[in-house]
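Researcher: Re-running this chain for the archive, since the previous output was lost when a drive failed. Same request as before.
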Amino acid sequence: MEGKQERRIRVLIAKPGLDGHDRGAKVIARAFRDAGMEVIYTGLRQTPEMIVSAAIQEDVDAIGMSCLSGAHMYLFPRVMELLEERGVDDIVVFGGGTIPADDIPKLKAAGLTAIFTPGTTTTEAIKCVKQNIRKEAEYEPVL
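Model: Regenerated structure tokens:
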């Protein structure tokens, strides 16, 4: 197909804040990689500023954040604020972790595309990213 780029979907997976448990982030990173996406994992204890900087430098299509510490109501919206301050409006942002149901609408109102709680399948997360990335028509499946 002419005019289409052969470029993998690029996803940054981050662990904001002081939470030191990254098993879930590593599981989702591996699932995205196995689904043909290019994954950048930032590691533990990232600040919102570090996450946004890495996302811009890596030219990612999506940012996924995992938070188990309870600080999601500050950390996730702060990433959205920083993206807006930098003029970035084409990166899909999603979060996951132990997020209370009452917080999910607030996080979506802050601009997050989706919140994945324990029990969400990797297939659901992959589908969400693929359906919501910018200019999806420009991407070819990488086999």
